[in-house]
Amino acid sequence: MTVAEEKKMKRCPVSLQPDIESLLTDLTEDDFSPASKQEKDDFIQDRQSVSYWKDAWRRLKKNIVAMVALGVIIFLFLFAFVGPLVVPYGYEQFNSGAENLFPYHYTLEDQKRLDEEIAARSDSGTVDVAELIEQAKAEAEAKGEKFTKKDEAVLRAQAKVAAKKASDNAEEVDPEALRKELGIKKHIFGYSRAELERKAEGEKVFPHIFGTDMYGRDILVRVMFGARVSMSVGVFAALLVLVIGALYGSISGYCGGRVDAVMQRIVELIYAVPEMLVVLLIATAMKPILTEYVNSGGGGPIKSFVSVLGPNLISLFIAFGMLYWVTMSRIIRGQVLQLKQQEYVTAARALGASGGRIIRRHLLPNCIGQIVVTTCLQIPSAIFLESFLSYLGVGVSAPLPSLGSMATDALSGMYTYTYRLIIPAIVLSIMILAFNLFGDGLRDALDPKLKK
Amino acid sequence: MGKYFLKRLGMALLTILLVACVTFLLMNAVPGSPWLSEKTPSETTLAALNAKYGLDQPVPVQLMKYLQNLLHGDFGVSLKMQKNRAVSSIIIEMFPISAKVGALALLWAVLVGVPLGCLAAFKRGKLTDSILRVVCTVGISMPSFVVASALLVVFAGGMATFKFFPTIFDASLGWRSYVLPCFSLGFYPMCYTARQTRSAMLDSLNQEYIKTARAKGLKNKKIIFKHALRNALIPVITYLGPQVAFTLCGGFVVESVFSIPGLGRYMVQSIQNRDYPVIMGTTIFIASFIILMNLVVDILYKVADPRISLTKGGE
Amino acid sequence: MSEQKNNTKLLEVKDLRVSFFTPAGEVKAVGGISYDLNYGEVMGVVGESGSGKSQEAYSIMGLLQSPGKVIGGSITFEGEDVLAFSPNEMTAFRGSKVSMIFQNPMTCLNPVYTIGNQLVEALRAHDKKISKADAEKRAMEMMEMVGINNVEKRMKQYPHEFSGGMRQRVMIAMGLICHPKLLIADEPTTALDVTIQAQILDLMKDLQKKTGMGIIFITHNLGVVADICDKVSVMYAGKIVEQGPVDDIFYKPTHPYTKGLLRSMPRVDAQSYERLIPIEGTPVDMLNPPEGCPFAPRCESCMKICLKKMPPYVEVGENHRSACWLCVQDQIKGEEK
Question: In chain C, how many domains are there?
Answer without folding.
Answer: 2
